[in-house]
Amino acid sequence: MNVLQESFNNFDVLAFPCNQFGQQEPGANGEEINNGITHVRPGKGFEPSFTMFKKIEVNGNKEHPLYTYLKTYCPSTRQNFADTNRLFYSPLRNSDVRWNWEKFLISKSGKPFIRYDPSTKPQDIRNDILFLLQQKS
Question: What is the pTM of this model?
Answer without folding.
Answer: 0.91
